[in-house]
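Why do we care about 3D structure at all? Because function follows from shape, and shape follows, mostly, from sequence. That is the central idea of this module. The next example makes it concrete: a single protein chain, its amino acid sequence, and then its structure expressed as tokens.
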Amino acid sequence: MTVFALHAIGNPTGTRMIEIIRGDITKLAVDAIVNAANSALAGGGGVDGAIHRAAGPDLMRELSRYDGCPTGGAVLTKGYHLPARYVIHAVGPVWHGGSRGEPELLAKAYESSFARAREAGDVRSIAFPAISTGVYGYPKPAAAAIAVRVMRAHEDEFARIVACMFDAENLSLYTHLLGGNKTENDQI
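And the structure:
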């Protein structure tokens, strides 16, 4: 797993940073990982399926208590067999060309994730995938800009915010948006 630690532009203290990691979010030793969930909270493909497989069947049992989650919302569960104590299941929008409130709903999914993390009371580190950019078809450059904007807004509330990218395109987009001095190492 490769780690790129980038100081976010506009952080006057320079004490917090948003990390960009290309790798498997289910392997991260953070307090909470965010799942790009569907509104039924029923598991699926991509990162959602990977998280469900790694966490084990207790995750689905806990999620069965919910009647779903609206687009832009998020719910918190235990992490079960994951290194992370919690999973925050955020429902991003399906891309329909941008005229159905997709930017606002995507920002709300990130904001809802941070809200669930604060409500847990013991989350100091949180990792996000690129929500809605897989089968939901959200254009990656626009999604990355929204994600980075929201992450920056919460940078001082958490000891560690991680953008965990699965593909080189998102890695490049996040790296460009965060700017700063890139350092590379193999530790998480």
